[in-house]
Amino acid sequence: MFVTHLSLADFRSYTLAEVPLAAGVTVFTGANGQGKTNLVEAIEFLATLGSHRVATEAPLVRAGAERSIVRARVQAGLEDTRSLLLEIELIPGRANKASLNRAPLRRPRDLLGALRVVFFSPEDLAIVKGDPSERRRFIDELVVARWPRLAGVRGDYDGVLRQRSALLKSLSGRGPRGVTDDVAATLDVWDGQLAAYGAEIVAARLATLAELRPFLEQAYASIAPTNNVAGITYKSSSLPAEEPAEAFTVGDLGGILTERMRERRGEEIARGVCLVGPHRDDLTLTLGELPTKGYASHGESWSTALALRLASFQLLRSDGVEPVLILDDVFAELDETRRARLAELIAGAEQVLITAAVAADVPSTLVGPRFAVQAATVAPLATDDVAAPVPMVESEPTGEAEA
User: Which residues contact 41 (CB under 8 A, 6 or more apart)?
Assistant: First the structure.
C-alpha cells in the first residue's frame, strides 16, 4: 500500500496543505523547524492514532484553530488500483471523529489497519537506551499494526488497570486484616479481568517477538560492519524463567497471571500498586553476549534502533502487507557506510518517505520526487534546479512547527 495524496487543515504548522505522493522514494528537505516532520507525522497519526513526538493530541492542532483535519488517499498496491480515503478530525477536549471513504466510523480505532506505517526517527534511540515503557510501546504498536483488534484489548486492559490501581491505592498501608470480604471479592473480579486481557497482550507480544527475531538479526547484520549479532528476548515480571515463554498458551498465561496476583496481593495492598501484568514487563536487547543498554556505543545503539524498525517493516511484509516506510531525519545520524547499506535495504519498499535537513545526506541512489519545505510551505524541487523551487502549497507558519 502507499499514500497517493495527503491533505492537512490546521495540523501543526499547516493552515492548508495538499501534497501529491506516489509509490517509490519521496524526499522532503529543509532546515529544522520548517515543518518536514509535521507532514510525515500526519501520516503516522492516520495509521496509528498516535504520535511519536507527543503524548497528547492538543499540540497537533494549529495554534488558534479549533480543530485539525488529516486526510489521505491510500492505494492498495502497485498492481491493485483500489483506494481508500482516510480522514480523522482532531478536536481538543472532545472525542476525535474518523471516516473511511467519507462514511463516519463509530470509533476512531476502527480506522486502524487501513494504512500501515513503519516510522523511524531519532526519538527511537529511547527504545534502546530508555525506560522499559519505551520498549513496551514499541512492541505494542507492532502488535496492533499486525492485529488491529488488539487496540481494543489494550484499551480494556488499561481501563481495568486504572480501576484496580485506584482500589489498591485506597487500601495502601492496610494489613491483610483490613481487607474485608467485599473488598477481596472486588479484587478477585479485577484480577480475573486483568489476567484475561493481560494474557492476550502477552501472547501477542511473544508471538510477534518470535517472528521478529530473525528479521532483527538479519537487519542488524546488514547495517553494522562489526559486532553484528543482535538479539531480543521477553523479560516477564510474572512468567517462570525456567520455561520458554513461547510455550505458553493464552489460557496458560491467564492462569499464571491470576496466580501471581494472588501470591502478591499482600504486597500490592501494602504498596498500593499493581505489580503483576504486561505493564511491568520489558524487552532485553543484546549485541553478542552483552545487553545493548549500558554496553553498546552510540553508533551501535543507533544501529539497533534502526534494525528494530527495519525488522518490523520486514515482519509486516511477511504478513502480506506492504507498509509505508518513513525515515525522519535518519541519514544525518549515519556514517557513509551505514547510509549506503540502509539505501540498499529500503530500495525495494513500495513507498519510502524521507525527511532530511541536508539534501546531500540522502544517498543519490534513492531516486524519486523531492520537495522543499520552508515555513510550512511545500514546493516541488525540479531535478535540474533545486535552488529555486516554485511554491506549490502555502500555509501560515506558526510556533507549532517541528522542533
Answer: 12, 51, 52, 53, 60, 402
Q: Give the CATH number of domain 1-116+322-403.
A: 3.40.50.300
Does the pLDDT at position 385 exceed 50? no
Q: How far is 152 from 140, CA to CA, in rounded Å?
A: 12
Contact between 18 and 40 under an 8 Å Cβ cutoff? The reply is: no
Alpha-carbon span 131 to 268, nearest angstrom: 22
The C-alpha cell at 60 is: 497537533
Residue 370 pLDDT grade (very low, low, confident, very high; cuts 50, 70, 90):
very high
Query: Given pLDDT bands bounded at 50, 70 and 90, which one contains residue 383?
Result: low
Q: Looking at residue 245, what DSSP letter applies? A: G
Grouping H, G, I as helix, E, B as strand and the rest as coil, residue 387 is coil
Under 8 Å between Cβ of 103 and 95: no
- For range 224-250, the mean pLDDT: 83
Backbone angles phi, psi at 117, to 5 degrees: -135, 140
Taking residues 317-336, report their average pLDDT: 91
